[in-house]
Specification:
Length: 125
Amino acid sequence: MAEKYKIVVEATPHYIAAQSIPQQHRYVFAYTVTITNQGTAPAKLLSRHWLITDSNGKIQEVRGEGVIGEQPYLKPGEMFQYTSGAMLETPVGTMQGEYTMRTDEGGQFDAPIPKFTLSIPRTLH
């Protein structure tokens, strides 16, 4: 039997060299997130919570309503994709977190965002 509430999150990061200034410890990354409802019931994305960690161990915590100004409502089988960005002081870091989702019955659950790595090209092997 399929899970009633199953939101799967995948992220693909990209380094933005044109906006980065390594001499000033400014590394800019974009990431495209795909949120897919693999459950059997619809759910609405209410808010986001990110932990962005650079290679010095500095953590930026980001909380806010929705994503890119939207609170997508996903029926079973539907997906939502968006691109956003983050800035680090180091050439490598990680992001992870969760989206708080609301069910049609008014309940809430968290959809985990698996940890992914931000790194400039040719830094990690």
